[in-house]
Write a structure and sequence with these properties.
7 helices, 14% strand, Ribosomal Protein L4, Chain: A, 6 strands, alpha/beta, six-stranded mixed sheet
C-alpha cells in the first residue's frame, strides 16, 4: 500500500510503501473484539466491596422470642432482610484480568492497523520534531495533518523529542502521544487518525512482527 509522506505543514514530500504485514493484514473482527474486551477488563480495579452477614456490626442476640408474636421467626438483625443487615450475592474484591496469547494480541493489532489504513486513517509524517514545547505549536501541526479529527501520534523511541511532543500534547483533548511499543487496540480504535513518523514504521515492525 502506497501512501503520501507529509511534512509538519501537511504538504506532500514523497510516497512510501507501507509494510504489507502490518497494514494489509487480514481484518479479523472477532479477534479485535476479544483483544479490546481483554484490555478494558484488565483496566478494571476490582476494588468494590460490600459486607455480608458475618461482617456487619450488631445483631448479637435474638431480636424477639421464637413463638407467640405472630411474626416470622428471626435469629439476628444481621440478616439481609433487616435494614442495616448484610448483603447477599453482592460484589467483593476480585481480579477481572483476562489472558490472551502474545501472538493473538499482535495479530489483533495488525488487524486494527490494517482496518485503519483501509479507511484512510493512517497519516505518515517525514519527521515529527518540534522546536518549541508549546501547546499552540502542536495544535497547529495537528491541524495541518488531520484537520479537526482526533489523532493518536506514535513515536519511535523515548528521547528528548518524545518528551517535548508529549508535553506539548498534554492539554489537547483530541490528541494522544504513545510510544510505538505501547500501541494498543483501544487507542487505535478510539482516535480517528493515527499519525506515524517514518521512523516509527520500523519500530512497529519490530514490535508486531
Amino acid at each position: 500500500m502506497k501512501v503520501d509522506v507529509l511534512d509538519l505543514k501537511g504538504q506532500k514530500v514523497r510516497e512510501i510503501e507501507l509494510p504489507a504485514q502490518l497494514f494489509e493484514a487480514p481484518i479479523n473482527i472477532d479477534l479485535m473484539h476479544q483483544a479490546y474486551t481483554r484490555q478494558m477488563a484488565n483496566a478494571r480495579l476490582g476494588t468494590h466491596q460490600t459486607k455480608v452477614r458475618s461482617e456487619v456490626r450488631g445483631g448479637g442476640r435474638k431480636p424477639f422470642k421464637q413463638k407467640g408474636t405472630g411474626r416470622a421467626r428471626q435469629g439476628s438483625t444481621n440478616a439481609a432482610q433487616w435494614v442495616g443487615g448484610g448483603r447477599i450475592h453482592t460484589p467483593h474484591p476480585r481480579s477481572y484480568e483476562q489472558s490472551m496469547p502474545k501472538k493473538m494480541r499482535q495479530a489483533a493489532l495488525r488487524s486494527v492497523l490494517s482496518a485503519k489504513a483501509a479507511d484512510a486513517g493512517i497519516i505518515v509524517v517525514d519527521e515529527f520534531e518540534i522546536k518549541e514545547t508549546k501547546t499552540r505549536v502542536m495544535a497547529e501541526i495537528l491541524s495541518n495533518l488531520v484537520g479537526t479529527s482526533t489523532a493518536l501520534v506514535l513515536m519511535p523511541v523515548k528521547d528528548q523529542n518524545y518528551d517535548d511532543v508529549m508535553r506539548s500534547t498534554d492539554n489537547i483533548e483530541t490528541a494522544k502521544v504513545l510510544l510505538a511499543s505501547y500501541v494498543n487496540i483501544r487507542d487505535v480504535l478510539v482516535f480517528d487518525k493515527v499519525v506515524i513518523p517514518v521512523k516509527t514504521i520500523d519500530a512497529l515492525v519490530a514490535h508486531l512482527g
